[in-house]
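input
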Amino acid sequence: MESNLKVAVIGLGYVGLPLARLFATKHAVIGFDINESRVEELKSGYDATLEIDTPSLTKVLINTTSNVNGLYCTSILQEVSDCNYYIVTVPTPVDKNNRPDLTPLYKSSETVGKLLKKGDIVIYESTVYPGVTEEECVPVLERISGLQYNVDFFVGYSPERINPGDKEHTVDKILKVTSGSTPETAQKVNQLYQSVITAGTHLAPSIKVAEAAKVIENSQRDINIAFVNELAKIFNLINIDTQAVLEAAGTKWNFLPFKPGLVGGHCIGVDPYYLAQKAQEMGYHPEIILAGRRLNDSMGEYVASQIVKLMIKKGISVNGASLLMLGITFKENCPDVRNTKIVDVIAALTDYGITVTIYDPLAQPEAVKKEYKLKTLNIVPNSKFDAIVLGVAHNAFLNLDFSRLQNSKSILYDVKGVLGDVVDGRL
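output
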């Protein structure tokens, strides 16, 4: 490793902060984010995403930009200027038509372009379709910096493998795919990650291969979940317990243990559209990928219809009924509400005339309000409801006393299949 190595991490969210903290245990790191309040929060030792606990964060925090090991957080671009590795970890969402939105990548590339010097290496971690790094990001870097690609500066790609809310499979324990724009750059990028990733690295032969590997990881999961979601619909029609079927099938050594559910978040529910976009640009219509997306995107309305059917069977008047939704984040034990499909269930239930109260101890009410215009509670409501729906399997919900929230006719529906046989219905 170079003796003067200094890493900048651009974007301090769910991906960037854990990576910056990890690198800071061995290297000098500048963490940059345009969100000033986020930076100030991190400087105080608090991470609102709950990915890094306060002791782990404060242990690496430093208050200087000099070349000493540790993490310096800033929203001031000039303070990032003396780094020689720039790692971009911004999100790659889709728009309302499910088309890839590369705006965050373009803007972050412009930001890095202002800082580039001869010999610098820019590494992208954002999930993209094959070709984005070299065909979309590199031209921006060249235009803003005035430098020439693979002559004055170089590029790498190492797809993020962060699993939000997972305290066991942390970034250092997940094998990392690496790549570079030249053989020498690829070795440098690989060595950089090897210095902190205890699980090891896999050096891909090209940037496009690394990009493709990442985007198919989540596309594969999306298709498998779509399959079991379709099974759940079929088995519900013939009155078979889907969970029992999957448990029985799972006794075979090579059966894949996927479960039905709502597929949201910023990865599985988004990445397949990136691969589909590239395929369509090449004149190929990806039938299985898009079919899986359509089926998974339909599950919110399906879950709502199943809940309503149970209410009718119990003699509950649907129009005007009260319902408690437990959880609104996209996954368990995580405060992230981006692209959560719980909102699809809530919207469908509201269309039936049901009044929905949302309780989630992890979600930030202001974030939910801004993103979805919905009100959420962080404490258990002191009321009784006609229906209770476990939408997210937060640990806080598993031992909840449901009886004090139920009236004589209440139904309990389990979207996640974690409450056992005490429920009236489950997906």
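quick obs: The first helix runs from residue 16 to 23.
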